[in-house]
Amino acid sequence: MKLAKTGAILSTAAVLGLGACGETETYNSSPARQDQVTAEFKKGVEFWKKQKTVTGIGKIASTKLVILNGDSTFACGQEEFSSASKTLSYCPNPSTVIAPAFALNEMNTTSIGAPLALAYHTGHELGHAVRNREGTAIPDASHEQARQAEEQAVDCTVGMQLAVTHGQNDMIAIGRYMYDQHADKIHGPNAKRVEALMQGGAGPCPE
Ligand SMILES: [Zn+2]
After folding, report:
1. Looking at the 3D structure of the chain, how many domains does it have?
2. Ligand 1 centroid to 125 CA: how many Å?
3. Domain boundaries, position 113
4. Which end of the chain is more exposed for a tag (fewer CB within 10 A), N or C?
5. Is 80 exceeded by the pLDDT of residue 71?
6. Considering the entire predicted model, what is its pTM?
7. Selection from 125, 130, 149 nearest residue 11 by Cα
8. Residue 4, C-beta contacts closer than 8 angstroms, at least 6 positions apart
9. Would residue 1 count as lying in a domain?
10. How much distance in Å is there from the Cα of 4 to the middle of ligand 1?
């Protein structure tokens, strides 16, 4: 997907759900999903605060989690997210992991179940925060190859985190889940993503 002019880094396209008559549909996430995404976010932040091996980890300290329910929205530059946005996303300024209700509810349909799927997706968006600092994230990620390399570098950081916060069995389940996703041009081939995850799990990611 495109990199927003504002520099928004998104997992996939943020799509506003438009209902009949142009009214925006709104969604509410279950308390269980909200608790899970909050817990995963905290686990990830605590992990990264203790690390010294990825140069961008300073960004983590100021990163917030925003859960979008009902008619609440979040503006990331010129990009606006709502409770109907389809995926978890990362906004670099202000550094924020965005968890729309629709995306949280979609976790119920994943093959590995909501808690593990959320562990991965939350870790991935935090990985963008980790890498989103001058000199760390690949600068011109608007080019497909560079973008995919950056997304895979993010998945490597997810591996670093999940190996510690969740352990090997969960890593393997998450690797399978990633492998079964629909491949897209933003993130690149699934096998590469899984490889990056496992590389992170085995040791520090290349800076
Ligand atoms: Zn991403």
Report:
1. 1
2. 6
3. 9-202
4. C
5. yes
6. 0.84
7. 125
8. 10, 76, 77, 78, 79
9. no
10. 13
